[in-house]
Structures are given as C-alpha cells and as structure tokens.
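Sanity check

After download, print the first record. It should look like this:
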Amino acid sequence: MVFKREDELAGNSRADEHDSKVSYALGDYEKAVRSRLAAWIESKTADRIWSRDFTVWSSTHVPEITDRLGWLALPESMRPETDEISQFADGVKSGGFRHAVLLGMGGSSLAAEVYQATFGNRPGFPELMVLDSTHPDAVSALLEAIDPESTLFIVASKSGTTIESLSLFEYFYGLFEAAGDPGAHFAAITDPGTPLEELSVERGFRRVFKAFPDIGGRYSALSHFGLVPAALVGMDTTGFLNRAAEVAARCRRSGSEQSNPGLMLGAVLAEVAIAGRDKVTFLTSPSLAAFPNWLEQLIAESTGKQGRGIVPIVGEPRARPETYGGDRFFVYISLEGEADSDSEALLDALVDAGHPAARFDLSENLEMAGEMFRWEFAIASAGAALGINPFNQPDVQSAKSLARQAMSEGPGGSPSSPDSISSENAKELVASLSAFLNRVRPGDYLAITAFITSSPGVVEMLQEIRSRLLNRYSTATTLGFGPRYLHSTGQLHKGGPDTGVFLQLVDEPREDLEVPRKGFTFARLVAAQAVGDYNALFRADRRVIRIDLGPDAERGLGAILEGLPGM
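Expected structure tokens:
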C-alpha cells in the first residue's frame, strides 16, 4: 500500500498549491471512499453544508444543527474582531502581566492550550496557563506557579454556567477582594446574555468578549474563545485567519467533491470507521504534539452518539507495528523540515503492514488554522455519513446530573462513593484488575480516566500503564484527566460504541480549598464529578472499575503497575 497525494486520489490532473501536502494510503478502502464522494457530488453536499441545510444531517429541523453552523463563517466573520482583540492584548502586555490563566473547560480551553504549546508566547507577552481541573492540588499547584498580582485570569464559558469555570473564578477572585479593584485582574469570554456576562459587569471585569452564539464549543478554535488567548500570547491572529480562509475557500468547492479537502477527509474518516477502522491514532512531529489534544474533543464529542463513533487515540506510547490491531487508522501530522525519523519509520512500517493512513505536512505552524477548518468540515461531513448529529452532546448531561446528585446526597465533606478497589490492598487489587481486564475484547479501547492531579511523574506512570496494556492486549488506549475529559471524550464514552473499558482512578487530595460563595470545597466537587461519571458509565452498561490511589497518587500507580496481570 502506498501513499497517494490528495489530488491523485481525487483523480484531478493538477494539484492546487497546498494539495500535495496531504496524502492517503487507503488500500482496499479507497473504493468505498470514492463511492462516498460520488454520492456527495450527486446530492450536492458541499453546497448544502454551506447553505446551512439541516437535511444533510436530519430529516427534521433540529435547532442544535441550524444554530450551530456559525463556524463556517469564522475565517471571515472574525476579521473585524481582530483589531479590538489585539488592542486588548497590547493593553495586557503593557500592563505588566506575566501570566494569563484561562479558567475554562473543553472547547473553551483546548485550542488556547494548543496555541501556547505550539507557538509559545512572544517576548513581552504573558505566558498562557490553562486550569481545567477542580482538584484542589491542581489549584494549589497553579497558585504556586504564578504571582497573582501580575496575572490576568480569563473566565471562559459559552453557557456562562460551567461549574468548574465559575468555581475557579470565585476562588481566584477571592484572593483580590481586599484590594481596591479586583475586577482589573479578570476578563471573560462568553455568549451574549449569559450569567457570566452579568457577573463580569457586576464584578467590574477588565473586559468581557461576547462570542458568536451560533457556534458549539468544539468548533470555536477560530472564534473569540481561541483568538483572544492567541492574541494574549502574541500570535499573528490575522495571518492565522488567512490560513483558515484559504482552506475554507477550497471546502466551498461543489460539483467535484473530490477536490474539496474537507469532504475528502470526511469520506475517509467515515468509510474506514464503518469498515471497523474506528480508532484514529495520531502521530505528530515534535512541535505539533499538542494539536491532537484539540482534535480529540472535536472527534469524540461530535461523533460518539447512538452507539456509533470514531475513537481518537492521542499521545499513546509507540509500539511495534505488529502490536496494533485491525481497528486502527493512522494519521501523521508533521512540520516540514522537522527531524522526526522515528515517526517516519513507524508510519512506513504501518502502511507496509496494511494499515490505512493519512499524512499531513505543514510548511509552517500557522497552517494549523487551515487544518483546524479542514478537520471541522471533515467531522461535520463524516457525521452525516455515520447518520448522527455532530453538533449535539446528548450524553454529557447525564454525568453532570449525577454529579449534582452526589453533591447533594453525600454526608459531611465527601459525596457517597461507589465501591472502590484500594491500591493499598495488593491481593484484592491484583484479583480485581485480572478479572476486569479479562473482559477486554478485540476492537475495544482501554480508557484511563484519572481524577488526580497531572504532574510529570504521574503522567510518566500513566503512560507506562498504557504501554503495558497496549502491548499485552493489542488494544487501543486513551488517557483523560477529570473533570477535563468530561468535556472532550465524555460524550463518546457513554454515547459511542460499547467498546470502551474504563479504569477510573481517584485519590485523596493533600489539602482542601473552600470555594467562596458556593458552599462547597474543591475536594467535594471533584469527588462528586468522579462519582457522577462512574455512575453514568455504570448506567450506560459500560465496563468500569474504580481504584482509589489513596493520599499518594504515585505510590498508588506503582501498585497498579505491579499488579497488572501477566506484564
């Protein structure tokens, strides 16, 4: 199996300027992709998407479709906003702020986090940090890493009611209440008319940006939610939008959907998934390593519904080509000229072994904007092929509701918890892990959902667990920190195919922090969110086990590594 350039696969005689940077190795799946594209030509799918025709996805009018297509216009509609955003960023820079801390979840934070990781902050601009955890140890760690007096906090929430963002806001606002002007340290990004907008006026925020309301969070990377943080770190937001506009123009092509890069990728993703290759596994060159973190939410939350879905595999440790099962589709995203011989060799070996793959070669980091638009268009069209609505998230609410229930029912300072396996009981841990992992079937994925604080040591140990599970079971693995992942892959876990096997990890925080004005602590909140998600998975009849790591998470993870059967 060999790679074909996008234009070759489309049957075009001449490639556009950027077409040669994308290539596919599809093998036996190429025929189905061509058939899908032919059907889309006949039904004028490209024209219908751009005209916001809900019948692409549903036979009946659904507000969550018609009211969620504003992302199509963002490369143009955001242009008039960039001057104002840049002026705000310049004011923050001249104000001497050394850090900008984004308090947001999912679509309100992931793009911003990717921008900081990929582009860094230009000299003189603040370093952007994202806090998307309600674990009290994570809050304390963030506070230790900054000087609050030289920090701007950005509260980001589309609905303006996100409990994590508002709880974090109240905590950090409380640090400044004795000062004369606490609001000067805060800005907000939200939809018009939300409780957060009202709060920002009441508390005297430095600025509130009102985002376009017809865009869902996972499609908001090119909106205020992405570009305000981007400007704060000194990114060229105008150049970024220009790259997105170039790809958007190509995604407008109709009559020959093969030359439409968004539909091409959408057809590939849908057809390989329908054929059983539903684990989209990302490889990247070093400088683009953060990009799949954003793609993960876009794919998982958009497609994981009605028992169907595409499972994004991000940051998985590498394995030998023969280790991977026949449920994978590999995607390699690289920056031209960046040395990455290990990924190149692995990709070649995977293709030689018969795995379908796609390759994206970016000539510069700014081209990430175009890839964001391409993938948004592709996932929207793939949703149509899979027969699902890619713009709703019907199963996210279940975990939220059960978390609220846990908050209200739990005695004292801790919500009532389901049965947990203690990592300190070695005999019980080994037996429980063995019985649990015996339930893994071919085509499954093993998801580690960790309601603990991320640290280099913790991440290294969790990655080692993933590596051992992958090599032992030839099963795809994912890793998500809670409650962050609830806003990215949580929908897929409950609404997608019943191929997930869930290992939930909890610990005992070293300390607790009161959330002002809320009547609860962060430890109570994160515990309730873990309980809520466990109960939501259990009610969805998912295979799930819960392990309590105790007060020392690394020690508890060490016990799991020792207890993994046959490894």
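If your output differs, re-run the checksum step. Summary of this record's structure: The first strand starts at residue 4 and ends at 5.
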